[in-house]
């Protein structure tokens, strides 16, 4: 039996995190194969037909929608209790690039509950949802990416929601969720957004959106928003924004609003990153993150390894975060700066104070442009109880200033300043949130 492991605050890691079994289609119940129900690889958008099949499966006691080999176009789909999704080898469930194929509904987006477009795959209020297989769910986002950047030329202050575009996957108010083995790619907007859910696993997925020739704006790999007990394991993430992002709300009174809240007991392990802006990012829409563990990850190319975005208009607490056993070529090893994009105090006179504390990075071997890319700002946030241990760093700039942190431990840390440790792509991103 393996030795007992613990989260950063000493809480034991539950056995649930070690169960990585992925069911076969046969184990997910009665199979509803698209082509056996008149849904063909014919270039037509089959939203109504696929939704009807989901509804039928639910009425007949549940089962699994099977996407066979071929490409099947659809708009927004809404899964129901007992109905799962399996995408077979060579199969692609492809999103429409026409926004009118996505329903407008009450949803959670960018730290608030509002009317916006549904995702391609929508799961709400479900206990026990599985979405897996070796196939692909493709957002087909190129048209909206091009439109977004054209709009930005016309109006540099336009927001993510101004260019109307859907997410790929939105899971809310659910538990015991498994997403495994899939290629999740080319989302119009955020790729996976999970809100107010618990016991969620992403296993062995490939999550991709391009940075060229057209950048896919704000296509975060996995946005974790007010969730607990969450495992990301064995995934490959390459997106033109942040990879694993901890959200939870924003605004001057975000910590007192019931729709917002904490992320806790999150593990990201055994993952590989392609290009991304942040490997683990806290914020910018984040209130409280606790017991976050990132370990055994490989980052051949990226911007920021650990990125703490601190909004001057939002009270934020980031605590008990550990990053360990990392091999990386990165622009910035640890990045902490004020995040002022779309700053709005909404009439609050005083600026809320934020805190990042009990942050540990250890057992890492990295090349970077900047090791400690941190801006002191005592009027906005406090940094407390940081530990740097067993680090082998080659950096263009060290930057570590222990006076910025109240109580810092530096043990067996070697930072070799070299002329060009990593041909990086720069530190923080100017892309939209």
Describe what you observe in this structure:
The chain is mainly β. It contains two helices and 30 strands. It has helices at residues 47-59, 142-154; strands at 31-33, 63-67, 70-74, 77-79, 83-87, 91-95, 104-109, 112-117, 121-124, 127-132, 136-138, 169-172, 175-180, 183-185, 192-195, 198-203, 206-208, 222-225, 228-233, 236-238, 242-247, 262-269, 272-273, 278-282, 288-299, 304-310, 317-338, 354-374, 381-397, 406-417. The strands form three sheets. It has a 21-stranded parallel β-sheet that branches. It starts with 30 loop residues before the first strand and ends in a 16-residue tail after the last strand. 50% of the residues are buried. Mean pLDDT is 93; it is low at 423-430.
**Annotation, overall tally of beta strands:** 30
What is the C-alpha radius of gyration, as a whole number of Å? 21 Å
- Give the averaged pLDDT, no decimals: 93
Backbone structural class: mainly beta
Estimate what percentage of residues fall within beta strands. Answer: over 45%
Major sheet characteristics: 21 strands, parallel
Helical stretch count?
A: 2
Q: Judging from the principal axes of the Cα atoms, what is the shape?
A: globular
Helix and strand topology:
Layout: E1 31-33, H1 47-59, E2 63-67, E3 70-74, E4 77-79, E5 83-87, E6 91-95, E7 104-109, E8 112-117, E9 121-124, E10 127-132, E11 136-138, H2 142-154, E12 169-172, E13 175-180, E14 183-185, E15 192-195, E16 198-203, E17 206-208, E18 222-225, E19 228-233, E20 236-238, E21 242-247, E22 262-269, E23 272-273, E24 278-282, E25 288-299, E26 304-310, E27 317-338, E28 354-374, E29 381-397, E30 406-417
Parallel strand pairs: 1-2, 2-5, 3-6, 4-9, 5-10, 6-11, 9-12, 10-13, 11-14, 12-15, 13-16, 14-17, 15-18, 16-19, 17-20, 18-21, 19-22, 20-23, 21-24, 22-25, 24-26, 25-27, 26-27, 27-28, 28-29, 29-30
Antiparallel strand pairs: 7-8
